[in-house]
Amino acid sequence: ATPGVRALQPYQPGKPLGELEREYGIRDAIKLASNENPLGPSPLGLAAARQALGEVELYPDSHGFALKQALATALAVDPGQLVLGNGSNEILQLVARAFLNPGDEVVVAQYAFAIFTTVAVSAGGSVVTVPARDWGADLPAMRAAVTDRTRVIFLANPNNPTGTWHRAAPLRAFLESLPQHVVVVLDEAYCEYVSEPDYPNGLAWLAQFPNLLVSRTFSKIYGLAGLRLGYGVASAPMADLLNRLREPFTVNNLALAAGEAALADHEHVRRARDANAQGLVALVAACERLGLACIPSVGNFIAVDVGRPAGPVYEALLRRGVIVRPLAPYGMPNHLRITIGTPAQMDRLLAALPQALAG
Ligand code: PMP
């Protein structure tokens, strides 16, 4: 393997519920570890996926014609600007494979989504990690880190695991300041949760920036994480490149059908957004009552500083049937990331958390 691959830290996904049953014999565990939708899948999406089970002997439509039509209409873009992926992770991977030659530099922020580094290294890229500011990406510092060898910048808005976000004006200024040879991936996996008036819709900038790609997912607000469906939107020439590189059939029949139906499920999106907004405020208030600081988040999760190494607190929560995410792999050893769950799940967490903190 290359030195870059050997140096990679393994991605540590949220513990699956089944593992808690096997390890601790807990059958009613709750998972607040992967920023999934606690309301479940979009009902319209689920019904469509069930129906699509009737045609699993057929290969999926590799071009995703119907889903792309639906997305193009919903997003007011051309279908030729779209690339579909097996989760938005595949979109990130495609960008890395399409644009990176060995040794090319990839600029990411400290505390950025871990997969940015994985895909960059997997394509032979050399990752330049720029220190964060107030836990969020420091855009001027990232601009200053760009060199002649920089080929790709990955930036999530909002970012996971910190929940930090960028306002329209500074983000636009950042994009304008970049040289032409730099491809920017704006990862908007959580955009549907954000209601701040200053929060930009990256799609509005595609016409101005031919090297910009916006990635989104059906894993979060649409509740379809297990079906693996994401997409990228870019200029038509960039989308064309990625579609040529993409392997056929990575998006399956169920995902194609579910995504198309879920896109029209405005009711589910509205309910999930409202529930998340309430749950987020309530969880922050509860953490404050426990004397725990939170990084202000606009996503469906929050990074909580437990004021001591978070590993034992994480373990103690596990023993009480509550799975959260320790952020030590992100270099945040005192933080846990907690996904906003249903009110009942939050009650369960808040019953367990003081005990877990007490050791
Ligand atoms: N980007 C960010 C910022 C994420 O948090 C995630 C999910 N953890 C993804 C991308 C990838 O999600 P998926 O592959 O399920 O679309």
Automatic annotation (TrEMBL):
Residue stretches making up the Aminotransferase class I/classII large domain: 28-353
Keywords on record: Amino-acid biosynthesis, Aminotransferase, Histidine biosynthesis, Pyridoxal phosphate, Transferase
InterPro entries: Aminotransferase_I/II_large, HisP_aminotrans, HistidinolP_aminotransfase, PyrdxlP-dep_Trfase, PyrdxlP-dep_Trfase_major, PyrdxlP-dep_Trfase_small
Pathway it works in: Amino-acid biosynthesis; L-histidine biosynthesis; L-histidine from 5-phospho-alpha-D-ribose 1-diphosphate: step 7/9
Cofactor: pyridoxal 5'-phosphate
UniProt-listed Enzyme Commission number(s): 2.6.1.9
Reactions listed under catalytic activity: L-histidinol phosphate + 2-oxoglutarate = 3-(imidazol-4-yl)-2-oxopropyl phosphate + L-glutamate
Signal peptide (residue range): none
Binding partners and assembly: Homodimer.
NCBIfam families hit by this protein: hisC
Family: Belongs to the class-II pyridoxal-phosphate-dependent aminotransferase family. Histidinol-phosphate aminotransferase subfamily.
Name this protein carries in UniProt: Histidinol-phosphate aminotransferase
Source organism of the structure: Immundisolibacter cernigliae
